[in-house]
DNA sequence: TTTTTTGTTGATTGACGAGTCAATAAACTT
DNA sequence: AAGTTTATTGACTCGTCAATCAACAAAAAA
């Protein structure tokens, strides 16, 4: 039965299954067997391809981060002007793809992972820096010197909205989150001179 | 050696040790033995007094939440007027007591716990409701109809600032966090009529 | 003084889970 | 055809950990 060229397929399936399982159980206490089973293979194969649980987690994290990054980049392509670009970033952050319970749950647990695993911390730091730099780029023309604090605040607000989504029951509402973040911005941008 | 009336002392020590260990390792994967050792007793005694690991976690959570609540209440006593009261809440939230790596790490993991343990979810929900109600009480006289959204946004921002603290290295800076939250508020309160 | 209650632990149990390995099989290479 | 590489798994090892238990000690109650 063994067909060749399985490696990328298996790996992709495992990464997806990892995200799903972490999101489903809401914790990192998932067994390699659970993940492998969901991905339709034995746990031994998961070890074969990834070498260990931690590497699997990190691969899943990279995947989520890269999906998010791609979505932001995509949204930025069709946005002209600072205002539109910032809105695009927010839309991407709270898009149905990213703002799903499963994915949000995974994010939360990546933060936990970052406390123990340096590589996870590094990855999250990269995400934060990139977000900040993106926001800064478009905030500077709008608010000048204050752009720095604004970007920091907005970043924290986004993370906070994610965090709260974890606890909420009922379906996710990305629109509301975008509105909240926009309100934060708009009120800050109202004063022209000071 | 056994002296009587040990129960409350042992329990308090265990709760404290639990928070410390969760904060130190940054995860819920702490063994009862670790906790008991830090609290200066055998793991069997921990089981004797709390019945199980989960109950111990919940007790720790209640303790953190109640400390936080007490600090907020205390700060509110010496605050007159909505503006001062809101500032007091922010100060308490980011006070050196609560805004320590150890405690912040514990909070993060309580969010994770809330995904699996209904009682943990309930406790966090109570905290969120109380914070919201406190903010609302003082935002209404300041911003009227918008108070609702404002309270939600501010709540999320506070959580987000906590979350970011987890990743940061270097000592915690509560002042900066308070400033950020105040900035959020001030800009929102600037428009008198709309 | 016996008995009961409270405090305490070392040793044990039982489950579970990460990682390894030997074995099997299909596909490619020579 | 013989040998190599890739895919795949069941069975096993080894460690860890929550939870239990039997036993001991001291204080309080009887």
UniProtKB/TrEMBL annotation, chains A, B:
Pfam families for the chain: TetR_C_6, TetR_N
UniProt KW Repeat keyword: no
GO molecular function: DNA-binding transcription factor activity; transcription cis-regulatory region binding
Keywords attached to this entry: DNA-binding, Repressor, Transcription, Transcription regulation
One Gene Ontology biological process: negative regulation of DNA-templated transcription
Domain HTH tetR-type: 8-68
InterPro entries, per the entry: BetI_C, Homeodomain-like_sf, HTH-type_TetR-like_transc_reg, HTH_TetR, Tet_transcr_reg_TetR-rel_C_sf, Tscrpt_rep_BetI
DNA-binding residues (ranges): 31-50
Pathway assigned to this chain's UniProt record: Amine and polyamine biosynthesis; betaine biosynthesis via choline pathway [regulation]
Function, in words: Repressor involved in choline regulation of the bet genes.
PANTHER family according to UniProt: HTH-TYPE TRANSCRIPTIONAL REGULATOR BETI, HTH-TYPE TRANSCRIPTIONAL REGULATOR RUTR
Name of the molecule in the record: HTH-type transcriptional regulator BetI
Lineage of source species: Bacteria, Pseudomonadati, Pseudomonadota, Alphaproteobacteria, Rhodobacterales
């Amino acid at each position: 039965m063994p067909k060749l060229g399985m490696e990328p397929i298996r790996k992709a399936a495992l990464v997806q299954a990892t995200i799903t399982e972490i999101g489903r159980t809401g914790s990192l206490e998932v067994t390699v067997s659970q993940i492998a089973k969901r991905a339709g293979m034995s746990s031994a194969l998961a070890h074969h391809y990834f070498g260990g649980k931690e590497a699997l987690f990190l691969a899943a994290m990279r995947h989520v981060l890269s999906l998010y990054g791609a979505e932001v980049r995509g949204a930025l392509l069709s946005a002209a002007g600072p205002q539109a670009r910032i809105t695009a970033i927010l839309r991407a952050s709270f898009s149905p793809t990213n703002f799903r319970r499963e994915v949000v749950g995974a994010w939360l647990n990546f933060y936990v992972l970052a406390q123990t695993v340096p590589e996870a911390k590094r990855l999250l730091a990269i995400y934060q820096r990139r977000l900040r730099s993106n926001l800064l780029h478009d905030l500077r023309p709008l608010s000048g010197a204050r752009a720095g604090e604004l970007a920091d605040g907005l970043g924290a607000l986004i993370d906070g909205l994610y965090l709260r989504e974890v606890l909420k029951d009922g379906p996710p509402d990305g629109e509301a989150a975008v509105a909240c973040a926009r309100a934060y911005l708009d009120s800050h941008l109202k004063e022209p001179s000071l």
